[in-house]
Design a protein that fits this description.
alpha+beta, four-stranded antiparallel β-sheet, 2 helices, 31% helix, globular
């Protein structure tokens, strides 16, 4: 599918979804569950984690195969609504 003037991305495409939260299992579990609900299972090779300097927070990046802007919007809505997710980028 070709991109038109109103569409910034051409789908399907690989798309990184980054989120930040406190570094504890509830955040990791919630982040992965939400993304996988919309994008299916995520290969371990397509996940990255980076701890904050003090180790209290962590950023997780999941690279998914995005199929539509609606899919991405739904992921971000669900991530933003979850208490464990502090920021979704």
């Amino acid at each position: 599918m070709a991109a038109d003037d109103s569409q910034l991305l051409e789908f399907p495409c690989d798309f990184p979804i980054k989120m930040m939260g406190k570094d504890h299992p509830a955040f990791h579990d919630a982040a992965r569950a939400i993304v996988e609900e919309h994008a299916g299972p995520i290969d371990e090779n397509l996940m990255r984690a980076a701890s904050s300097r003090n180790g209290r927070f962590i950023s997780l990046t999941f690279t998914i195969r995005a199929h539509s802007q609606q899919q991405l919007d739904a992921i971000y809505v669900d991530l933003s609504a979850h208490d464990e997710i502090l920021v979704a980028l």
